[in-house]
Amino acid sequence: MRFLRSLTLLCLPFGATPSVAEVPNVVTDIGPVQSLVAMVMGDLGAAQAIVPPEMSPHNFALRPSQARALDGADLLVWVGPELTPWMEKATAALSGEARHIRLLGVDGTTVLSYRDPIKAAEHGHDDHEDHDHADHDAHEGHDHEGHDHDAHDHEGHDHEEHDHEAHDAHDQEGHDTHHHEGTDPHAWLDPQNAVVWVGAIAESLSEVDPENADTYRANASDARAKLDQLTQEVAQQLGDQGKLGFVTFHDAFQYFENRFGLQSSGTVSLGDASQPSPARLARLRDAMEERGVACAFREPQFTDRLLNAASEGSAVTIAVIDPLGVNQEPGAGMYPAIIRAMAQAMADCAGQ
């Protein structure tokens, strides 16, 4: 982008100045974050998401074209290394002028720890603690030197690439290969986190592009109002579904559950790259029977073979729930569409 700015100036007549300020080149990790950026940028520009929504971000392999997109970014907006551990190295490619926002570090973000939903349901409550970042350093989510290496340990993440199909193809000698601890990164599924984040995005864009600061802040204000309305709408739609029995392939949805008073009865896989043991599958089948589980939710980013195996022989309905928006149109409307689609899937489950 800096090269294009220089080229634009060279092509202008002597003494002329550009009539419109160049907007920042913004790159995000996933589609839902790109959507939040689109809400803030409005008609001024668009961000580029690195990970396609049909792929899991946890073990994504960065392609050269995507590495170049990162290299040319003025601003990177990402959830953090807890979601995309491979991107932390890639942030080293950002120029010294580039900024990035690690959203899990933004003040006011609700952050939850990983849990085992089966164990949590057995005890009648989630076995995690909520962490409010309001008392964290206000600059933790805004590293203006280009990258934030010490923000979080990569607890529970294997930094090597994994093929989920290959993992599902064989048994891992009776035990889970990954034990996820530390921060659960799926924080975008709480729309109140999105409310916090659009404000942080607007401030970072304003620092990079002060000429359009008023527009970014106005757009963020509008976005916060719409996201608050979305939260109220979904809360009303789901109502009192606290006893709704459902399971998912992996534990990606506790932020949504936590916000709307739901609780998973279990997951096939403990973590994002975890291979379940036969004992865990048996335990999940027992839990599904004991708790009258009505629905099992699969995700488009993962194979559903093991979920089918876990629910075989039961009356459980298998439906799709998508945290990344495979079938949603990219842009400002994508994030609300993801949350509404998840709520509708839960409501349909409850109505069976």
The SS-based structural class is alpha/beta
Note poorly predicted spans: 1-20, 125-179
Number of strands: 11
Number of helices: 12
Rg: 21 Å
Which labels suit this protein?
disordered N terminus; 352 residues
Plain-language structure description:
The chain is an alpha/beta fold and 352 residues long. The protein contains 12 helices and 11 strands. The protein has helices at residues 2-11, 31-41, 64-71, 85-90, 117-122, 164-168, 191-208, 213-238, 254-260, 278-290, 305-311, 334-350; strands at 26-28, 48-49, 75-78, 99-102, 110-112, 130-132, 142-143, 246-250, 266-269, 295-298, 317-320. The strands form 3 sheets. The protein has a 5-stranded mixed β-sheet with strand order 2-1-3-4-7, with helices on one face. Strands 9-8-10-11 form a 4-stranded parallel β-sheet. Helix 2 crosses helix 7 (191-208). The chain starts with a helix and ends with a helix. Mean pLDDT is 77; it is low at 1-20 and 125-179.
